[in-house]
């Protein structure tokens, strides 16, 4: 188990419980059941207290947790007959964006998502989930394919943002993001998005301009990272806690503002503490959204999606 900074007291208690059990395994005559159970009960209570009212910055930390379920975990748990499709047919295959045809409880879908990677080597290959232009052009190609064959699109969002490197800019990063966003608004099939970790800026919006958008309870979705915001506004990245508060990046804030449609509850301690329960909840939410959209005409789907995003912020401006 990887523990976050604010989870250190929990790490000590769970560590002590594990030490007792290890001692009992090496000494068959030792009875530590009562003491270990007391520590387990204390740890469970502390875990609930820690996650009861997480600050925006702590939610950022949970959203970035290295053990948090990734796109590949959801694909493996929820989808059958997954057939990955690679490349943008122009430059290369970007490993930060994955996608392909699959079935969700028998329903054909096109699933597209960001993948960060689970270990050092994979994270480097996936560029830590930061897509280059060819990643977004791949997404456009897959959405075109889904539209042609009248297959719903499901996107899983988990990126710090689009990659800002020199090569990406030379190959038209901003244009690729704009084209992907435009494609989201144009396709005549149901489009459902789920923020499973970080939703960073245009890199997330490019494949999350959907009919229905949901977020896991401890995910974040923002125009910029707290560190980036603090560096710009205060010239000090250490003010990320204040920036996280100001950005209104939590699922609860965004639901109140009407940016997302639903919050999916996570197990106590975050999605990484019970991956099975988390993937099951995400699957139910996606299926519910697809069912809501299944009877709509192509024209109605496009009109509703465009209206949803064009109307965002109007109430705030009027106020």
Describe the structure.
By secondary structure, the chain is an alpha/beta fold. It is 50% helix and 16% strand. It is built from 15 helices and eight strands. It has helices at 8-26, 33-50, 56-63, 71-78, 120-125, 133-148, 166-170, 173-186, 201-205, 226-233, 240-247, 251-256, 275-293, 298-310, 314-318, and strands spanning 79-84, 97-104, 107-114, 153-159, 191-200, 212-216, 220-222, 262-264. The longest helix has 19 residues, at 8-26. The protein is globular, with a radius of gyration of 21 Å. The chain starts with 7 loop residues before the first helix and ends with a helix. The model has no long low-confidence stretch (mean pLDDT 92).
Oligomer: single chain
Span between termini:
46 Å
Name the overall outline.
Answer: globular
**SSE string:** HHHHEEEHHEHHEHEEHHHEHHH
**What is the C-alpha radius of gyration, as a whole number of Å?**
21 Å
Q: How many β-strand stretches?
A: 8
By helix and strand content, what is the structural category? Answer: alpha/beta
Number of helices: 15
Please mark out the parts with pLDDT under 50 across 5 or more consecutive residues, or reply none: none
State which percent range the strand residues make up: 15-25%
Please state the average pLDDT score: 92
Q: Major sheet: size, sense and barrel closure? A: 8 strands, mixed
**Could you estimate the helical fraction of the residues in percent?**
40-55%
């Amino acid at each position: 188990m990887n523990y976050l900074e604010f989870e250190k007291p929990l790490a000590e208690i769970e560590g002590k419980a594990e030490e007792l059990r290890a001692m009992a395994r090496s000494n068959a005559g030792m009875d530590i059941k009562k003491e270990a159970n007391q520590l387990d009960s204390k740890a469970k209570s502390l875990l609930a207290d820690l996650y009861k009212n997480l600050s925006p910055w702590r939610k950022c930390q949970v959203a970035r947790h290295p053990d948090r379920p990734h796109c590949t975990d959801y694909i493996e748990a929820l989808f059958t007959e997954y057939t990955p499709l690679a490349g943008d047919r122009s430059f290369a295959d970007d490993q930060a964006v994955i996608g392909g045809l699959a079935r969700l409880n028998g329903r054909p879908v096109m699933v597209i998502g960001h993948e960060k990677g689970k270990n050092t080597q994979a994270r480097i290959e996936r560029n830590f989930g930061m897509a280059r232009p060819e990643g977004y052009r791949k997404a456009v190609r897959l959405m075109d394919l889904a539209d042609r064959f009248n297959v719903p699109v499901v996107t899983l969002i988990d990126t710090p943002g689009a990659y800002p490197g020199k090569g990406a800019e030379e190959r038209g990063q901003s244009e690729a993001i704009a084209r992907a966003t435009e494609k989201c608004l144009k396709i005549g099939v149901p489009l459902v998005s789920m923020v499973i970790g970080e939703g960073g800026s245009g890199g997330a919006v490019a494949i999350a301009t959907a009919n229905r958008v949901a977020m896991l309870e401890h995910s974040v979705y923002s125009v910029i990272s707290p560190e980036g915001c603090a560096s710009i506004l205060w010239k000090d990245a250490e003010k990320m806690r204040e920036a996280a508060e100001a950005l209104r990046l939590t699922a609860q804030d965004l639901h109140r503002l009407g940016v997302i449609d639903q919050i999916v509850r996570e197990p106590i301690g975050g999605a990484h503490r019970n991956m099975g329960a988390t993937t099951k909840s995400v699957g139910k939410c996606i299926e519910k959204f697809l069912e809501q959209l299944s009877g709509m005409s192509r024209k109605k789907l496009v009109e509703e999606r465009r209206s949803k995003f064009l109307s965002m912020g109007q109430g705030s401006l009027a106020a």
